[in-house]
Design goal:
The structure is a homodimer. Chain A has about 525 residues and is of the alpha+beta class. The first copy, chain A, has 4 domains: about 50 residues, S15/NS1, RNA-binding (Helix Hairpins), CATH 1.10.287.10; about 270 residues, 2-Layer Sandwich (BirA Bifunctional Protein, domain 2), CATH 3.30.930; about 90 residues, Rossmann fold, CATH 3.40.50.800; about 30 residues. Chain A has 18 helices and 13 strands. Chain A has an 8-stranded mixed sheet with strand order 1-2-8-7-6-3-5-4. The first copy, chain A, has a 5-stranded mixed sheet with strand order 10-9-11-12-13, sandwiched between helices. In chain A, strand 9, helix 13 and strand 10 form a beta-alpha-beta unit. Chain A is elongated, with a radius of gyration of 31 Å. The first copy, chain A, starts with a helix and ends with a helix. At the A-B interface, helix 5, helix 13, helix 16, helix 17 and helix 18 of A face helix 5, helix 13, helix 16, helix 17 and helix 18 of B.
């Protein structure tokens, strides 16, 4: 083991290397590689007990992960403690957490706020604090199974939310890189050409080609080759065709990616979600830390308002947001290793749902439908028809609250009945329990249905509801009505009983000598 | 209307006044008063359209509200935009929101993170980012009704969480101030003597008295007088006794407070929560913005670990945390007015639940009880007994997911049965659906109960569960069992039917010529 002073010297040198690369705006992988080396050196110092390498949720965690978007990170003022910043997304904190706690396998979702500074050049409609909703599976597993589950989840969410039709594009970093290689793109331009390809969802091919040739220095032939590939989309058939493609098959990397895409699509078929999935070679997501499969979900409905340049789905480069993009993600096998002193890798795959965008769409739909949306779940308003009935209202509402019924009353000693009823109509409260002097003498509370304005007398003691139901059964129509419902319900109960017994025994961890099931079967 | 230049001059002068007061560490009320004047002047400028007074969630919102604790606020670095800070609690943001949106009546709860910097002198166990859980009622209402509801809510929460016995202390700022006045405390020392009284939950009276006399300059007689009062606690009787007290009754303020305490206690009696409520004259909460009733809830169980000096219930002054304090709040009628350019007041009352502290206690209890706590809600593990059954597992799990059952599978092509079963035991998954080659041929899936290790064959198509239940009914024991359960359930159904009809008609806003209820009754 090297002497401490030698390590400290090495740290100084390595620190310089990192600073130099950063000022030269070297490629992200280079910087990250050197940062990792630096962290490893520092960790070596830790082994002698003098300096402990403690991974903190500190500013250094966020640097070097977002490339150009680092300037969008909110830093906290230096007030004498350690330098802190606010998290930019939920993925980097997740990776840091895994490394810090030496976790090798975990599956979790996280719904929380993230913080991004306004880009001073683009200040309109920019969220500075907004929700992200992430789901990630970390661990060394057999290929594509967790990746397929992430896509199944996106499909389920978008289907259930009733946002209209959607598509999920899938692609793979290795296919993109392999494609660039066989088309003749120089290695060091992969990332930057990838960014340009990424603009295809916002710009027509001619403009994208222009950028490749004029700004990024590709020859027209190379650009045209790329153009042929990135216009391809399909399913399993496309993956198979490309594996046979003369050019593409030359790249081992691309073939690995294509095989995995085939595997993924076969799993998605079993998950019954292929109807909305498209293998699309033009998909190139912004974040550099993706290493394998990548995907993006988009709504296809016309009439969806254009999204602000902020990407709600997690990609920090604003240009990545396509109109209608509501979710995105992919596999990122190298990120956790960047936080581990020994560089231990934990493969991860995940997806981020753009819930702020989805909220906007749902709000637009609600407004368009002129449907009333309640802001509370109050079921019963406890009201008084005359003055001096506050005490009775407080008593009744206490009974209702104790019985788990959501009730409220006006915070006035002598509110007018009309005001109380108006409040119900405005708030959408469906029922009113009205107390009145005469009714109190008769031992009755009037239950008013706000929608129909009908009133039903109820015996004040709600536990006597059953008594009232007994009176109902004296009528023949009622009996028939009850019979029909009961027969239907009985069927459901039988199913319920069987499953309940199983679950009950499981939950109570009971070890009966003779399980109820033995009795039953 | 004054000329613009005159207003600008006045703003400059007022700004100086504020700065001077702050540097002199003047009393909080004075500072806030002058800040409000300053804001009003600035607002006047806004009226001419040149400068719009826009209430932003900015750094200025937080200054002047927390007194000495302003140094615990996290400021964001000046990166070229407006100066921002992170919120310190949920109450000031709430007040700001009301003023900004000109809301006069609202009732809301808010569970979210708040941010407090380490006090460099006390760094141990200090949360920097933690959850608060607030409930507030804003609006002009009749006295004590919303205040009583806040206490009912605290009582309900603490009872349901099963944390053991608790007490809720109540007092009133007006009673405290009135008491200080009649005891002979000079006006300008009210706040600082209040802070000292607040330490009674942590220090014995002798030490508190010493601080009053030696540090705060009260005479021994005055301190003794205070001592007599602050040792009093009771209920309605104490409030009545104090209203007759020769000294106390001289203060109009105190009498108003005492009358309100009586009113509050009468409402709490109707809410059935007085068994845990104590009117305690020693309660003096830290926050200066309380104007009326104040309360604090404490657990009384022995063996509860001492709380970190951080107060989880919202009081920014660390000294306020008593051992076992889990909630606190009160009425604050002046806060919203500080954010309104015209100084319009909106009376508010609220409570903050110390959920971080409650979490600690619940965690300790869970550990002590050695009860297993699951981290997922997975109901069924989809497993395979042999190799090459991944496709079948994916198909079955898709059926289960589509049916809304929480299921998972191992992300391996050929996992060992034992590993899958072990995973269930570790995660507490109660059921395993085991696929096997022979069973597949027989069209059967084995359902294994993890707790008992028994296995039950199920026909693969889960929709056929009912068929299997039919076979059950051929056994006499089963019939009896089902009969008993059905009779019980039938009773519940009748009650359910009656209520459902009412609710259904309310929800569907139906106007039947003859309501079903007319038919039934």
């Amino acid at each position: 083991m090297e002497e401490k002073s030698q390590i400290q010297e090495a740290i100084k040198v390595q620190g310089e290397v990192v600073r130099k690369l950063k000022s030269e705006k070297a490629s992200k992988e280079q910087i990250d590689e050197e940062v990792a080396k630096l962290l490893q050196l520092k960790a070596q110092l830790g082994d002698d007990g003098k300096h402990t390498f403690v991974l903190k949720t500190a500013k250094e965690t966020l640097t070097g992960k977002y490339g150009e978007d680092s300037k969008l990170i909110y830093d906290l003022k230096d007030q004498g403690g350690e330098l802190l910043s606010l998290r930019y997304d939920l993925t980097v904190p997740f990776a840091r957490y895994l490394a810090m706690n030496k976790i090798t396998n975990i599956k979790r979702y996280h719904i929380a706020k993230v913080y991004r500074r306004d880009n001073p050049a683009m200040t309109r409609g920019r969220y500075r604090e907004f929700y992200q909703c992430d789901f990630d599976i970390a661990g060394q597993y057999d290929a594509m199974i967790p990746d397929a589950e992430c896509l199944k989840i996106v499909y389920e969410i978008l289907s259930e939310l009733d946002l209209g039709d959607f598509r999920i594009k899938v692609n793979d970093r290795r296919i993109l890189d392999g494609m660039f290689a066989v088309c003749g793109v120089p290695d060091e331009k992969f990332r930057t050409i990838c960014s340009t390809v990424d603009k295809l969802d916002k710009m027509p091919w001619e403009d994208v080609k222009k950028e490749m040739v004029n700004e990024k220095g590709l020859s027209e032939e190379v650009a045209d080759q790329i153009g042929e590939y990135v216009s391809m989309q399909g399913g399993m058939d496309l993956a198979e065709r490309l594996l046979q493609d003369q050019k593409m098959s030359q790249s081992k990397q691309a073939c690995a990616g294509l095989s995995d895409i085939k595997l993924l699509l076969s799993y998605l078929q079993l998950f019954q979600v292929t109807d909305k999935v498209v293998f699309d070679l033009s998909l190139a997501r912004g974040l550099d830390y993706y290493t394998g499969v990548i995907y993006e979900a988009m709504l296809t409905q016309a009439g969806v308002a254009p999204v602000a340049a902020e990407t709600p789905n997690g990609a920090p480069r604003e240009e990545t947001a396509s109109v209608g993009s509501v979710a995105g993600g992919g596999r990122y096998d190298g990120l956790v290793g960047m936080f581990d002193p020994k560089g231990r890798k934990v493969p991860c795959v995940g997806v981020s749902i753009g819930i702020e965008r989805i909220f906007s769409i749902m709000e637009q739909k609600a407004e368009a439908s002129a449907e009333r949306v309640r802001t509370t779940e109050v079921q019963v308003m406890v009201a008084a028809a005359q003055k001096n009935l506050l005490e009775e209202r407080l008593k009744l509402i206490t009974e209702l609250w104790n019985a788990g019924i959501k009730a409220e009353l006006m915070y006035k000693k002598n509110p007018k009945l009309l005001s109380q009823l108006q409040h119900c109509e405005e708030s959408g409260i469906p029922l009113v329990a009205i107390l009145g002097e005469q009714e109190l003498k008769d031992g009755v509370v009037k239950l008013r249905i706000v929608a129909t304005r009908e009133e039903v007398p109820l015996i004040q003691n709600l536990h006597c509801v059953s008594l009232q139901l007994c009176t109902l059964t004296q009528k023949p129509t009622t009996c028939f009505f009850l019979f029909v419902i009961s027969a239907f319900l009985l069927n459901l109960y039988l199913r319920f009983i069987y499953t309940s017994v199983l679950v009950w025994e499981a939950i109570t961890f009971s070890h009966p000598k003779q399980s109820i099931l033995h009795v039953l079967t």
